Every structure is written in structure tokens, then in C-alpha cells.
Amino acid sequence: MHSQTINPPQKQGRLKLLALILIFTLPVIAAHLILNQGWYQAGVTNKGVLIEPRFTFESADLVSPVSETWQLAFIVPDKCDQTCEQRWHLLNQSYIALGAYSERVVVTLYVSETADKSWLATNQSNYPILQLNSKPVPVESQDYLLVDPLGQWVMRYPQAEASALVAQNKGLIADVRKILKLSRVG
What we know:
This protein is 38% helix and 15% strand. By secondary structure, it is an alpha/beta fold. The protein folds into two domains: 9-42; 49-182, Glutaredoxin, CATH 3.40.30. α2 (82-97) packs parallel to α4. This is Cytochrome oxidase assembly protein.
């Protein structure tokens, strides 16, 4: 007579198969749940704000005042107050702190029609100037802006509290060094 019961070796084989399936599928299911439920916060190493979606000079009908180098731009405000002066000074110090990388970067001033003309007259020196038109751009007054040699606006550093300016500039230096180290352009 033929028995309907499972013999012990067959039962043991099925348990091993089930265990193997669980070992390989459980991590995939867990990862899927973690990512889809928003339980995972990706680590961010940059200190600035990435400009997304992609924005270029062509997007704003502008022509870059500099080519083949990275630009570290300052958005000149309508009226340059003490905080503005401090941000401008720290940007220049950050440029100097780049050391050998500074050869690949140009400090640039971006101005609108209402920009502080008297401040520009005393601080412009030999810096390239980009005249912004009326089209919207993803930066605001007194922002720092990092632009790649291909004309893509990469990262912005919004105006910060006076107590956080030095820390922000240290982050700017770290970001620029990291990007220039990894970049093959400019």
C-alpha cells in the first residue's frame, strides 16, 4: 500500500528549500518596504542646495561672461547692507582658501536692473559681471552660486544668519573642492 504521508527526508528537503527562499527574498522585501515607506533618509554630503530641475544659461536666455572655468557667483542685491558686505568679504576669502583649485574658478557678479550701483562701483574691480534679465532664475539676492564650465547652475548657498556665515563658507569651500576634485571639466 502507498502512503500519503511525507517521509522525513522529503520534509527536511522542503524545509531547507523554504529557508533558502526566505534567506534570499526577505532582504529584498525589507529593502523595498524601507525605500517605499520613506523610512530611509539618504545621506547628503553637500552643504549647498542643489539646483533642480536642471537650469542653464540657455534656460534664462543668458550668455555666460566666462567660459571654460567654474564660476563662483555672488547675486548683488538692490541695497548692499552690512550682511551683504560680510558675505562678499567671506566669498573672496573662500576663493583664496581654495588654494590650487582657485585656478579653475572665477568669482563673478550677477546683477539685476535694480542692483546696488554704488556698491558695484566700489567692489567690482576686475570681476566679470552677468546682467540678469527679467526671466525667473533659481537664485535670490545675496546668494552664492556655483556654475559649471558648461553653463549649468549647480548649487546655491542662500543668505544665512550672521552667526552662520562662516560655517556656510566653510561648507562652500568643502563643496567646491570636492566638485573640482571629481570634475573633469574646467
